[in-house]
Write a structure and sequence with these properties.
Number of strands: 14
Order of helices and strands: EEHEEHEHEEEEEEEEE
Radius of gyration: 18 Å
Distance between the termini: 30 Å
Largest sheet: 10 strands, mixed
Number of helices: 3
CATH topology of the largest domain: Rossmann fold
CATH architecture of the largest domain: 3-Layer(aba) Sandwich
Strand content: 35-45%
Strand order of the largest sheet: 4-3-2-1-5-6-7-14-9-12
Helix content: 10-25%
Structural class: alpha/beta
CATH superfamily of the largest domain: Thiamin pyrophosphokinase, catalytic domain
Length: 212
């Protein structure tokens, strides 16, 4: 398993999972400023640099890739594709939620499904919350805070055979649809919650302890 860390330019409240030797680090455009702030040097800086001029110390980064402003991919999606091309299959994405651009938050949540359908798993970190996607599988979530929140949404039109256990409001073999938020704001009551879906894709988000 090779891990990839992607740093974008929106909300950031601290590292939940820290890079270690052998991980691949990518700064998506102005995510480079976040890397500088927390003392990390990315292996790749990629973007159209519409939100930041190309940094003067970019020569210190092994790879800098400038792309056209008019393109189909967001800078964060370009970073995800770059990580996949380097055989990464676990992605930790920071600076990809909140801020003034709700559209980019939604795009990054969709990016989690893009990763999952390419046999990788992404974790998108927000303020005291983390998101991932499951599809036709079972996933366990460790309770990080007492009665921690767990929200589950259908990403595909309908997700069938959904079972959620270890929570305040368990369900078994249910169907979730993307036009009604039945799975929002549950609470993890056991040491671990289990979420299964037989047919379809689910977006999972759960609460993390606040960082000092």
């Amino acid at each position: 398993m090779r891990r990839c860390f992607v740093f974008s330019a929106a909300e950031f409240d601290g590292l939940r999972e820290s890079p270690r030797s052998g991980d691949f680090l990518i700064a998506a455009d102005a995510g480079y400023l976040l890397c500088k702030k927390i003392g990390l040097r990315p292996d790749l800086l990629i973007g159209d640099f519409d939100s930041m001029s190309e940094p003067p110390d970019a020569p210190g980064i092994p790879h800098v890739e400038r792309v056209p402003v008019m393109k189909d991919d967001t800078d964060t999606m370009l970073a995800l594709k770059a990580g996949l091309s380097r055989n990464c299959n676990e992605f930790h994405i920071y600076g990809g939620t909140g801020g003034q651009r709700m559209d980019h938050t939604l795009a990054n949540l969709q990016g989690l499904l893009y990763l999952r359908r390419r046999k990788a798993r992404g974790f998108l970190y927000g303020r005291d919350f983390v998101w991932t996607v499951v599809e036709n599988e079972t996933f366990e979530v460790a309770r990080a805070v007492p009665d921690g929140l767990l929200s589950v949404f259908a990403l595909s039109g309908r997700a069938q055979g959904v079972t959620i256990a270890g929570v305040q409001y368990p369900i078994g073999g249910a169907e979730l649809s993307n036009d009604f938020p039945l799975g929002v704001s549950n609470h993890i009551t056991d040491a671990r919650a289990s979420v299964s879906v037989e047919n379809g894709a689910l977006l999972l988000g759960w609460e993390l302890p606040p960082l000092s």
